[in-house]
Amino acid sequence: MLKTISKWLVGLLISATIFAIAYLLWFVNGVNFIYGDKTELVDHTVFATPIELTVITDINVLSEDGQTMLPNRTIVLDDGNIISITVGGTLPANARVINGNGKYLIPGLVDSHAHLLKSPNDLLLYVANGVTHIRDLGGAPERLKLRKEIEQGRVGPRLFVTSPPIDTWGFLQGIFMEIITFHKNTHNAEQAKSMVIDFVEQGYDAIKTYHLDMPSYRAVNKLAAKFDIPTTGHFPLTFELSELAVTQQNEIAHIEEIVRVLIREFGSINEKGSDAFFTYVEARSDKIMDDLLKNDITVNSVMWYMESIHDQFSNLETVLKKVHIEYANPGLVEGTNASKDYKVGWLPSYNQFEAVSDVNEERYKRNDIFWKAREEAHHILLKAMVRRGVKLLAGTDSGGNLVVPGFALHDELSALNASGMSTAQALAAATINPASLMHSNAGVVEVGRRADLVILNKNPLIDIDNTRTIDTVILNGRVFRRDQLDAMLAAVKQANDNSRKIDIDKYR
Questions:
Q1: Separation CA 209–CA 330 (nearest Å)
Q2: Is residue 301 within 8 Å of 395, Cβ to Cβ?
Q3: What is the pLDDT of residue 340?
């Protein structure tokens, strides 16, 4: 009898283990699909082009201070660098010549907050949109390999790769998060410091903080400073804004981080009122700006994504038709709605932000007030940052809902301009500002700089939306004309269509 019960228990244990493993594999496979792992890959090698001696004649060039366009310049590029900028001048023999008459030359654009996930096709979307450098804020080890491939000539924007985000979760939650995300879990400050050492040795460009406890957060920033490696990311969930006066964190990954703490400080927006909240944000903003400036903290904008959340909540069908959804990885777009409490995706019934069909009027009104107030708080803080001269970077948080890689950076520049930045300031946030932060030899059209450049058909200093009028992209001296850029977009679109499970024709 005892032997029979033992066999039964062993069998039950084996069956439960097999079921658990099968469920975990199924779940991980679903997560990988969402991250884009199952999307057909474009053959990027067909777009490879050599570095060659190139001359751009009679073109308007963005000045080094980013304030004006200098007319009738001749630019010579060789070995991936800008070797001369002249008015007129003799053209070198055997050079490829691009007629720049009536066109405008700016530095290649930088998306300072991107997430490639498992979607290398996105690299082509960035190039086709004039984005020659991206900062992947939370990179898995595979991203380091991809960074090297691009440095060796693979078609794609240069990569600045931060470490995987470091969290402080409970034991079981930490295991779960490490399985389904790129995050790494730590249990205490000593373990967090050990992770920083490992990430430095692996060659990451920065350390990404996420929801750490305060002792671990401070320990990570202190050790990173000792190694002279920057930190960027989120605040701990218990973060107080007084910490800005002493923190060693170099960069805040979104304005949202500050807004989140202000909401916690203020209390219920619905109960106290939006106007009172805005007054509170205004009253707090100068001290926040003082601390950001004192500690030389850079802020990543992520404005368009934050503005789009209310639109997704209130009118998802309409906003889906305004973005280039056909180019976004189908895994992210389709996501999953396997659970009412766990929705991932962009489409109706999959989108975590949409107002569900059974929501009552009172709940809808409360959420509507909250999202609108949250968005306006971003605007208040951005204007204060611009007024006070806080260092700002244009970032999109690609990988988030409706944020289409490459295209979204132009949306971000438009949002920044509409929210209080001049066209020159917005352009700087996507060129010289991130280049300076990364110590990159790009970001300015200047002799000796790397030839990461974009030729536009219209002047972006007159209208920031003119950054979309791309004629040619030059990537480390490699020239991609409009027909090649269109071919990249077509290839990604076709690969997406071949991989799609849900028809999106109504949104194209």
A1: 28
A2: yes
A3: 63
pLDDT tens for residues 330-363?
Answer: 999 999 876 666 788 999 989 999 887 667 888 8
Q: Residues with Cβ < 8 Å from 288, sequence gap 6 or more?
A: 241, 244, 258, 381, 384
Output the pLDDT for position 107. Answer: 98
Contact 331, 285 (CB under 8 A): no
Residues 204, 199: Cα–Cα separation, whole Å: 6
- Joined together, the tokens standing for residue 221 give 């920033």
Q: What is the DSSP letter of 325?
A: G
Question: What letter would DSSP give residue 505?
Answer: G
Strand runs (DSSP E) across 234-293, as ranges? 251-252
Pairwise CA distance, residues 234 & 211, whole Å: 7
SS3 state of residue 257? helix
**Residue among 141, 139, 110, 137 nearest 126 (CA):** 110
CA distance 89 to 211: 56
Torsion of CA 64, 70, 72, 77, to 10 degrees: 10
Contact 476, 80 (CB under 8 A): yes
Identity of the residue numbered 430:
A
What is the helix (H) or strand (E) element at residue 56, kind and residue range? strand 54-62
Here the tokens at position 202 are 């692996």
Reduced to 3 states, what is the DSSP secondary structure of residue 48? coil
Instruction: Give 3-state DSSP helix, strand, coil % of the chain, rounded to 5.
Output: 45, 20, 35
- What residue has token string 């997704």? 312
Cβ neighbourhood burial of 243 (10 Å; 0-12, 13-18, 19+): middle
Domains of the chain: 46-107+453-496 (2.30.40.10)
Kindly report, residue by residue over 357-379, the tens digit of the pLDDT. Answer: 667 888 899 999 999 999 999 99
Distance CA 392, CA 121 (A): 28
The residue type at 225 = A
> Which residues fall within 8 angstroms of residue 97, CB to CB, at 6 or more apart?
54, 55, 56, 57, 91
Per DSSP (E only), the strands in 340-441 are 342-344, 392-393
Copy the structure tokens of residue 298.
Answer: 């850079």
Single-letter residue type at 251: E
